[in-house]
Specification:
371 residues, four-stranded antiparallel β-sheet, 12 strands
Length: 371
């Protein structure tokens, strides 16, 4: 019966994906009445929206992308409007390229536009993919007169406005804070790593088996140590990566993140590290920080524009993390003495986490697509 339950669990969770959430990168520059820029859109997103894989073999070639240049341009430009003082600024795609980002190949659209006059108020309205994927985000970098402004465009905030002065720092802070929360909640590999560490927090390994902790205080401080260590570690590497002081191949980072989830889950099944799980959280948190940094590093922001974005994004990650902990800990503490918790929640839950992460590890390390 237990084996049957495990098989069913694995079949249920196998389709879960953990690749970076859908983003596009829109860089625009304004010089008097002229606009120029570049828009990077993931080929997988364009394939989902308009179909690029003509032969259906699961691989998108340059020839297939080139055959769809006009359709790609029409699809994208229909979902981006730039308005100067109430008058639309026509945009054209001057060149099509392809570039590799940390999560795969992207179509690169070089943009050019002309406004009627130098705008006093410039409004950017972005609706790409929102009808197909409400989790999609447009990451905007806007430059004018040597100043760089950033924004995150989402279904709820699809319009950004520039009025000849820097947008309010509070607005920028809140946008990247929300992006940090969204990033941790949709980053299933980060969530499963945290869950694998938290599952045994209301138990202790004594006499060869897991037993319930005596007090909530004991469980609370165990969780506090884990979360604090994970936070400090990923904050360090996130900052170093965004500042350009540390750079590792994305494939290596993503594979290491998947491996960290496997190790944390297997440790629950056959405990090697029974105490001081904060050491595990800190060690692997350094790797997870490099994964968190992807959103900001691919925006290629100048250092002058990094401070608010980096701090608010990191605080958003922490807030999203704390929500997960706050939802987990009280419930786990109540269930800890039940036979259900060590056998099903911890045992089968850790098996499921290890199985999912093993699939990710194979996919990422060998550059395969299994599910």
């Amino acid at each position: 019966m237990r084996r049957l339950a495990l098989v069913l669990l694995l079949l249920w969770v196998a389709p879960v994906q953990a690749h970076k959430a859908s983003d596009s990168y829109l860089a625009l520059s304004l010089a008097d009445d002229r606009l120029s820029g570049q828009w990077d859109i993931a080929l997988r997103d364009l394939d989902y929206a308009i179909g690029l894989d003509a032969d259906g073999n699961g691989e998108i070639t340059w020839g297939e992308v080139r055959a769809k240049h006009d359709e790609i341009a029409a699809y994208a430009l229909a979902r981006l409007a730039i308005v100067a003082d109430g008058v639309l600024c026509p945009l054209t795609v001057s060149e099509h390229l392809v570039d590799n980002h940390s999560d795969g190949a992207y179509a690169v659209l070089r943009l050019a536009g002309q406004c009627a006059t130098a705008p006093g108020v410039l409004t950017i309205r972005y609706t790409l993919l929102f009808d197909l994927d409400p989790q999609h985000r447009g990451l905007l970098r806007f430059e004018e007169q040597g100043r760089t402004h950033t924004a995150v465009l989402s279904p709820d905030h699809n319009t950004w406005q520039f009025e000849g002065r820097s947008p309010a720092l509070l607005q920028q802070f809140l946008e990247f804070f929300e992006t940090g929360v969204w990033h941790i909640w949709t980053g299933f590999d980060h969530v499963l790593f945290l869950c694998a560490l938290l599952l045994p927090a209301v138990l202790e390994h004594r006499s060869g088996r897991w037993q319930a902790v005596a007090t909530f205080r004991q469980a609370f401080f165990e969780v506090l140590g884990i979360v604090t260590a994970f936070t400090i570690a990923h904050s360090i590497t996130l900052s170093l990566a965004v500042l350009g002081l540390v750079a590792l191949p994305s494939r290596l980072v993503e594979s290491a993140i998947a491996a960290s989830v496997v190790v944390a889950a297997l440790n629950n099944l056959h405990p090697v590290i029974e105490k001081r799980l904060w050491v595990v959280a800190f060690t692997f948190g350094l790797v997870h920080g490099l994964g968190f940094a992807t959103v900001l590093t691919e925006l290629a922001l100048p250092r002058s524009a990094l401070a608010v974005s980096m701090v608010s994004f990191n605080l958003g990650v922490e807030a999203g993390q704390l929500v997960i902990v706050a939802a987990f800990l009280p419930l786990a503490y109540v269930l800890r003495r039940s036979w259900l918790y060590p056998r099903f929640v911890l045992g089968l839950g850790s098996c499921g986490i290890a199985a999912i992460a093993s699939l990710w590890l194979i996919e990422r390390s060998l550059n395969l697509s299994i599910v």
